[in-house]
């Protein structure tokens, strides 16, 4: 609870965005979300939806998208399985970073987020994220210095259970960072395998 209260106060005060002078206010309107669910890929399936989804261009499959509210983003699937990974993809300026802040700010308001004990927003372009060599390094800035070692140990011990990581700006990092970093280990489930991840990016680097 002490971590939760501290982080919520930071998100409400926008204290975790010292270098982002272009961040719009949270009162500004931002783009509506559309959900595209990915099931098991069948290589024999050659329909337009599959081709567009696998190779980018999701904006061109208008009839295959369904609008979704931020409140429903992490709602369990029809099978009852929890959602462990959400990709928020779109062109520059569409509101991905604003969405990331809005999700963190409304942590205690959104039903599907309330069960997370810890919600951490990491802006991937920040130097302290790029240079992180360990979990304590990664959490040194979001938390008070006296918290960073403790929270890293607790999250490592729990394997990231009840942790939501919001990773903003995957398109803004270099190829070498994606191939060799603490963030890559998290995305590949080598670290914190039980955490839930929301990843924002422009369209082209993912495909």
UniProtKB/TrEMBL annotation:
UniProt xrefs under PROSITE patterns: NACHT
Alphabetical list of InterPro entries matching this protein: NACHT_NTPase (IPR007111), P-loop_NTPase (IPR027417)
Pfam families: NACHT
Ranges where the NACHT domain occurs: 84-207
SUPFAM superfamilies: P-loop containing nucleoside triphosphate hydrolases (SSF52540)
Protein name: NACHT, LRR and PYD domains-containing protein 1b allele 2
Species of origin: Geodia barretti (Barrett's horny sponge)
Origin organism lineage: Eukaryota, Metazoa, Porifera, Demospongiae, Heteroscleromorpha
């Amino acid at each position: 609870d002490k971590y939760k209260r501290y982080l919520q106060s930071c998100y409400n005060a926008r204290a975790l965005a010292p270098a982002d002078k272009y961040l719009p206010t949270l009162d500004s309107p931002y783009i509506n979300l559309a959900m595209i669910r990915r099931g098991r890929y069948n290589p024999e399936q050659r329909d337009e939806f599959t081709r567009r989804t696998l190779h980018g261009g999701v904006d061109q499959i208008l009839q295959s998208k369904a609008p979704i509210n931020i409140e429903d983003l992490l709602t369990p699937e029809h099978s009852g399985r929890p959602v462990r990974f959400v990709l928020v993809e779109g062109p520059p300026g569409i509101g991905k970073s604003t969405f990331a802040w809005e999700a963190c700010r409304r942590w205690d308001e959104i039903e599907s987020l309330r069960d997370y004990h810890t919600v951490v927003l990491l802006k991937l372009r920040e130097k302290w994220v790029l240079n992180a060599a360990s979990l304590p390094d990664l959490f040194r800035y979001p938390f008070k210095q006296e918290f960073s070692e403790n929270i890293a140990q607790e999250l490592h011990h729990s394997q990231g259970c009840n942790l939501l990581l919001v990773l903003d700006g995957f398109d803004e990092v270099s190829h070498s960072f994606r191939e060799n970093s603490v963030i890559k280990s998290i995305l590949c489930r080598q670290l914190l395998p039980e955490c839930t991840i929301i990843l924002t990016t422009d369209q082209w680097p993912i495909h």
